[in-house]
Amino acid sequence: MKPIDPIEVFKALSNEARLQILEWLKDPKAHFGPQGGVDLIEIGVCVSQITAKLNMTQSTTSQYLSVLQRAGLVHATRLGKWTYYRRDEEAIQEIASYIQHDL
Amino acid sequence: MKPIDPIEVFKALSNEARLQILEWLKDPKAHFGPQGGVDLIEIGVCVSQITAKLNMTQSTTSQYLSVLQRAGLVHATRLGKWTYYRRDEEAIQEIASYIQHDL
DNA sequence: TTGACATATCGTAAATCATCGATATAATGG
DNA sequence: CCATTATATCGATGATTTACGATATGTCAA
Questions:
Q1: Looking at the partner chain, which of A11, A19, A23 has a beta carbon nearest the beta carbon of B14?
Q2: Which residues touch strand D (CB under 7 A)?
Q3: Global pTM value
Q4: What's the pLDDT at A6?
Q5: Residue ranges of the alpha helices (H) in chain B?
């Protein structure tokens, strides 16, 4: 796992929609319906479901998920046609720790 | 103390120079010379000293300090001609806590 | 192979940010 | 009051971000 870049992370977090996505992904079962036989917790939520809740286009949603991924805040898994995104809890705690001790 | 706005805070932190200022202010004695009879720890560091270390103009430094202040990350005290800035440690811990528990 | 669907990428216009120089405001000393 | 010094604000310009529609790519099912 590559070291986190605080600036990149803070930029990723500087946007309402991306913050919203992260909050939804914190408890996928509470915010998204089940999708096939896929474990929401282990694998994540697909782009279409996130697009449906966000009030934005598929294009924007996909790009925002990429930003979150480049910042290391989420992880993507492709299964068939779908790409599932889930949070990287470890990275999120690392950021909290960075602010708490190093900032 | 008004509640923190995470987006505003993250925007404030999304900039190398502003992050740098916050890090310097974490340990003012290590980064700034003494200024008159003012307690660096209690009162803070004046804009000129920060400007001198940043490689930017006084105008930019002043604006960046305002951004940090609006985000609640620093506190300003005017004494005579000088304005001294110090970190708001409580706000910084609040942000760490927000990421750790609520994000 | 083709068609249909899910996702990613590209190109763009508008909004916001970074940073500066010029100038305004505030406080001090003479 | 005046000159000087410290800080804040204004106005400008280039860079980055936002968010979109159009299009490309990848995958499955028939």
A1: A11
A2: A 11, 14-15, 17, 55-60, 63, 67, 78, 80-81; B 46-48, 51, 58-59, 62-63, 65-66, 76, 78, 81-84
A3: 0.95
A4: 98
A5: 6-13, 16-26, 28-31, 47-53, 58-70, 89-97
